[in-house]
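Sequence in, structure out. Go.
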Amino acid sequence: MMTPQHFLALDDFAPERLRRLVDRGLEIKTALREDGPRKDSPLRGRLMAMIFEKASTRTRASFEAAMAHLGGSAMFLDPASTQLGRGESVADSARVLSRMADVIVIRTFSHSRLEEFAVHSRVPVINALTDLLHPCQLLADVMTWQEHRGPVAGKKAAFIGDGNNVCNSWMNAARLFGFHLAVATPSGYEPDADIAARCAAAVSLTNSPEEAVAGAEVVVTDTWASMGQEEESQQRRRDFAGYQVTRETMERAAAGAIFMHCLPAYRGQEVTEEVIDAEQGVVWDEAENRMH
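Output:
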């Protein structure tokens, strides 16, 4: 039996393959708008199993919608209704489910849990978010950037806020797609040190949002308290004071800079309403592009 091709991190695919995925996403989006729903069903008879241990709106909806557009079907599983939530081993769940599904999408907390599942799966496993990485989000983000501003190689992006899973994947994207990423976080909230070191040639770290956004063509942020960090929210609001993306922040970026956020956004915290709702805010395209 051949080893399945998993997608747990952007690094699992070569840069050229990642670029083809983004280009193909744009082609599919254009065709859907111009020609309507696909007449063929390339995934007819194929089943996608979805194991979600974290709540989701865009991720779940985008995977299920995409599978339906391509003629396949999706089976949603949550811990409350499966043996995985009652203590069955990850390995045993992987062995069983991978005999029934053609691909398995997992959204969980620990990245090592995802990796363990992939080791024992007979079919491809896709990372729909872990505490360490969010690679599918970055495919949509790069696609959105390219859709609005053309090829991203050689350009600059800025990430302002928490050095979380989205930030880590933005650093990987900078290295693999050939752009520069400036990351501005408060002290103590820096992104993963190993990933930062591996991406050092494409990434600069600072505690200054003003420094990070200078000359950036895209400005990105995320919630200050991710799932599982709710008890830290008050402290994080204090620590992230000064890291809100405002109109003044965007004015320091390059002319015509766009704003992105993976959502959900907490308006008035990490970003002001006038930024997210302005023409430069492309978050709705970004959300839709998760499907493509």
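Check: The chain is about 40% helix and 15% strand. The chain has a mean pLDDT of 95.
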